[in-house]
Automatic annotation (TrEMBL):
Top-level taxon of the source organism: Bacteria
Name of this protein: CENP-V/GFA domain-containing protein
InterPro entries in UniProt: DUF6151
Length: 194
């Protein structure tokens, strides 16, 4: 078991996902438009998105994740009142990840917040599949869409969420207080302004 180091681009915000091994989370590519909008909002489409507009995300249970330093630099936005909480490091506008709330115990970490000076593939394994491929830009090759089929991937994701929920892995959660309130008030960002 190893730790996955987390770091924003400027190094002000650091953290860790502890005791990772391949298969303990879901490493996938999301092609949904809001993940794309999130990267574009910070003018980081080139850094974050793959050539088909996908964002690599690593879903893990919140209890594994700690912020060591720079929590005061963590900010949050949403694209609608009911949208995902999308977290970022305001010091250098690095996307961190997305969450729903305490009731759904997961963090979708964006690769931009995973420190690059470590062997990520051996720590967390390869990308296991893609979601929302129907919203990809252009035509992702079969190779790119390789991995688990949609149904199997959905089953894998739901199974993990269920296990994390029943074993109380949603807490402690670096982004929410115990009463469910986010650690910072999210700002509402209009998709039209991106
Ligand atoms: Zn930073
Ligand atoms: Zn998405």
């Amino acid at each position: 078991m190893e730790d996955l180091k987390l770091e924003c681009k400027c190094g002000e915000v650091t953290g860790v996902v502890s005791n990772v091994k391949p298969g303990c989370g879901n490493r996938l590519v999301c092609y949904c438009e809001d993940c794309r909008n999130f990267a574009k909002h910070f003018n980081k489409a080139d850094d974050i998105l793959n050539e088909f507009g996908g964002t690599e995300i690593y879903q893990i249970d919140p209890s594994r994740m700690r912020i060591y330093h720079g929590i005061e630099n963590i900010s949050c936005l949403r694209f609608s009142d009911k949208g995902l909480y999308r977290w970022y490091a305001s010091c250098c506008q690095t996307p961190i990840g997305n969450t729903v709330g305490l009731n759904l115990p997961f963090v979708g970490l964006i690769h931009s917040f995973v420190a690059s000076d470590q062997c990520i593939d051996s720590k967390i394994g390869p990308v296991i599949g893609s979601v929302y491929t129907e919203h990809a830009i252009g035509t992702p090759s079969d190779e790119l869409k390789a991995g688990k089929s949609k149904t199997r991937l959905l089953f894998t994701i739901l199974r993990k969420l269920f296990i994390w929920k029943i074993f109380g892995k949603g807490s402690p959660n670096p982004f929410f207080h115990k009463d469910g309130k986010p650690i910072v008030e999210p700002s509402l960002v209009s998709r039209n302004k991106i």
